[in-house]
Amino acid sequence: MADTAPTGYDSGLYNADLAPVPPARRDWSWLNMATVWMGMVHNIVVYEAASGLMALGFSAWECLAVVAVAYTVLFLAMWFNARAGTRYGIPFCVLIRSAFGPSGAQVPVLLRGFCAVFWFSVQSYAAAQAADAILSTLIGGWTSLDVSFLGMRMHMWLAMALIWALHGWIAGHGVHRIRNFELVAGPLVIAVGLLATLWALRVGHGPGPLFAQPSRLHGAAFWSAFAMGVTGMIGMWATFAVNIPDLSRFVRSERDQVIGQAIGLPLTAMVFTPMGILTTSATVILFGHPIWNPVELLLKLDHPLITVLGGATLVLATLSVNVAANIMPAAYDLINLMPRRLNFDRASSLVLVLGVFFMPWLWFDDAASIYQVLNLVGGLLGPVTGIMLADFYLVRRQVLDVPALYRHGGRYDGHDGWNPPALIAFAAGGVLASAGQFLPALAGLSALSWFVGVGAGAGVYLALSPRRPLPHANDGIAPSEA
């Protein structure tokens, strides 16, 4: 059961996993933060994102420009949104109570939790395909296990069980062991990516045909597509721009947080994206058409050693992104719903179970529907980012009464636990960010949906929020020194 809440704290808002991390236990360095991001950035979805950009008509160099702008914006948003976590040691689901109230906070927390479980399910099924390729190479007759159950063959069920078990093993060792896993996994996947890039350069005797492909976009069409590309890349990480305090609460200083994210986010993305383009360029030479799905590429190469090592790398890459970007935040979100019943171990196990119930094998190949749903949800999280930034920097002026975040009836309670300005701003920003998907006359907003959501959410929240007295210096837990 959860630890007893301190005197004056509400047991429905507190347990040991939601408690502020004391300064003595905030021991993540810039290296830990950088390697965690390395483990998240080089995943299958990001690898394939370059194909979407090139399909829009960009040249390879323009793809890199889109990635550079998108990840620089993300870095800035996460840098500022991470600061409260580093200063006070609190997770997203507690920090968000400052703006939404302890009851109203459940709205963005549930939305963020849904996204985390959804992405966990999608990424894990992709890893299961890689595991299935490995097992079919090592075990004769593996694919003959073709008994179908709930629309999926038995050999894929076994591959999924293996992937889910690996996730459970890593997550079951706790947050600090996750840090140690990422310290190895992040750089290792980058190293394997460099080997694949050297292979691609050898096959293509240079950058290859994709880097020679000219841009098909010019003038207004270019800038419209550029905005859409930047927004799409940001959309993949819009969920993490919200809950970055879940990681930054363990970092020892603001300096470590900033340096680690700068190295692990924009810099790693700028290294990883050309790796994907170069490797795919080699497939054009070998097979006559680009192959962006790495599992399909491994099967196409049809070399046992390459299939096993490449598949293992894909599994490792998926584990590294899922445990930090999906299982950890989803577990905190579930703990926030039931702090009396759940701790991190139980909540992370529940995430694994919920991931199966999403049944990704039934719709995995319908990418258009997947991304339409995720873009819609991502558009709704833009206002949450704007509200959080406006609340912490402009309304609270970076000073929080930490104990009040763990009890009802205090300065953050709003009206019976609900803060109307945040809820109205969330609704207004969500409507504006998503309107372009439903109203053709506002289609132009879709290209900048995340930016519209952030701006609208922050603006409406500030307009509706009264100026509040700051907490006294001795009200909250002392922040860590930067």
Description:
67% of the residues lie in helices and 1% in strands. A two-stranded antiparallel sheet has the order 1-2. The protein has a domain at 23-90 and 120-367: Hydantoin permease (Orthogonal Bundle), CATH 1.10.4160.10. α13 runs antiparallel to α14. The model is unreliable at 476-482 (pLDDT under 50). The protein is mostly helical and 482 residues long. A hairpin with a 2-residue loop joins β1 (148-149) and β2.
In brief, what are we looking at here?
The protein contains 18 helices and two strands. The protein is an all-alpha fold. The protein has a domain at 23-90 and 120-367: Hydantoin permease.
Mean pLDDT: 85
Strand order of the largest sheet: 1-2
CATH H level, superfamily name of the domain at 23-90 and 120-367: Hydantoin permease
- Architecture of the domain at 23-90 and 120-367, according to CATH? Orthogonal Bundle
CATH class label of the domain at 23-90 and 120-367: Mainly Alpha
Determine the structural class based on helices, strands and strand pairing: mainly alpha
**H and E order:** HHHHHHEEHHHHHHHHHHHH
Helix content: 55-70%
Round the Cα radius of gyration to an integer and report it: 23 Å
Topology:
Elements: H1 30-41, H2 44-55, H3 60-88, H4 92-95, H5 97-100, H6 106-138, E1 148-149, E2 152-153, H7 154-171, H8 175-204, H9 209-212, H10 219-243, H11 245-248, H12 254-287, H13 294-301, H14 304-337, H15 344-357, H16 367-395, H17 420-434, H18 449-464
Antiparallel strand pairs: 1-2
